[in-house]
Design brief:
The chain is an alpha/beta fold. The chain contains 6 helices and 12 strands. It has a 6-stranded mixed beta sheet, with helices on both faces. It has a 4-stranded antiparallel beta sheet with strand order 2-1-4-5, with helices on one face. β1 and β2 form a beta hairpin. Bound molecules: adenosine-5'-triphosphate.
Length: about 260
């Protein structure tokens, strides 16, 4: 049997006194590309942050790449692209330095010798090689996002977790990025990607999980939202907030893709 890249059992997360994630079980086999969908505020970012140990679990267990969440996880092989984070964290730093920082982790505080070459290659792959010496604070949101993706790729991750990685990125660059993810998938990388719109990721997705109010309401075949939301021409800029009061039934109309 293939080892699970990610295994979560009974995960609950409470933030600010509110239950945000309510009993999520998720087993992601190695090599799978899983899309995590759900309305704004349904708990997608909080779930992945808890799976990566960024926010504490109120209950439940998580294993990543065969080890329980904690120091035994091979963090050097876990890449994470958070949502909407200033790439430099407010500190003056160049794009290249941000990407080089991706080669470091808790047990490797001395960067590898080929760090600059690897970082340049990752920036080139994302189409921002020419920005390597620019301060990230001077870059646009989309350019900063590509720097953050390069920082995750430079680790050569076996597990790659992406939180809305293509928001703010133009379509040609999104397509180039999807090709990069396809190459990683072909090399055996497991990918968990939060998406607002499946868009150019559609051919890559093996499985879709939909969250609602912190619970899984669909887990299985790729799904597409109703045509007006999933259609290629739909401008998905309006919010789809999770209603404050949980109600029965899914909040997206889902159809199983042929
Ligand atoms: N640190 C926090 N303290 C209190 N509440 C929080 C915190 N972080 C997130 N939340 C709340 O948790 C809920 C889920 O947020 P989360 O960002 O996980 O949802 P999401 O599905 O990723 O939404 P989006 O698509 O807008 O990114 C929201 O109601 C949010 O306000």
């Amino acid at each position: 049997m293939t080892e699970a890249a990610l295994e979560a059992t009974g995960v609950h997360v409470t933030l600010g006194g509110q239950q945000i994630v309510r009993g999520v079980d998720l087993l992601v086999p190695s090599g799978q590309v899983l899309a995590l969908l759900g309305a704004n505020g349904s708990g997608k970012s909080t779930l992945v942050r808890s799976l990566l140990g960024v926010v504490p679990l109120a209950a439940g267990q998580v294993r990543l790449l065969g080890a329980p969440l904690g120091p035994r996880v091979p963090w050097d092989r876990v890449g994470y692209v958070p949502q909407r984070m200033a790439a430099g964290g407010g500190v003056p730093t160049t794009a290249l330095e941000v990407v080089v920082s991706g080669t470091l982790h808790g047990r490797r505080l001395v960067p590898p010798r080929d760090r600059r070459a690897r970082a340049r290659a990752a920036l080139e792959e994302l189409g921002v090689g020419d920005l390597q010496d620019r301060r990230v604070q001077e870059l646009s949101g989309g350019q900063q996002q590509r720097v953050l993706i390069a920082r995750a790729l430079v680790r050569r991750p076996r597990l790659l977790v992406l939180d809305e990685p293509t928001s703010g990125i133009d379509l040609p660059t999104q397509e180039a990025f999807v090709s990069t993810v396809a190459r990683l998938r072909d090399e055996g990388t497991t990918v968990v990607v939060i998406l607002h719109e499946i868009g150019p990721f559609a051919p890559l997705i093996d499985r879709t999980v939909v969250l609602r109010h912190g619970r899984v309401v669909h887990d299985g075949d790729p799904v597409h939202a109703r045509a007006e939301h999933g259609g290629a021409g739909h401008d998905h800029t309006h919010p789809h907030a999770d209603p404050a009061t949980p109600q029965d039934g899914p909040d997206l109309t889902l159809g199983v893709a042929p």
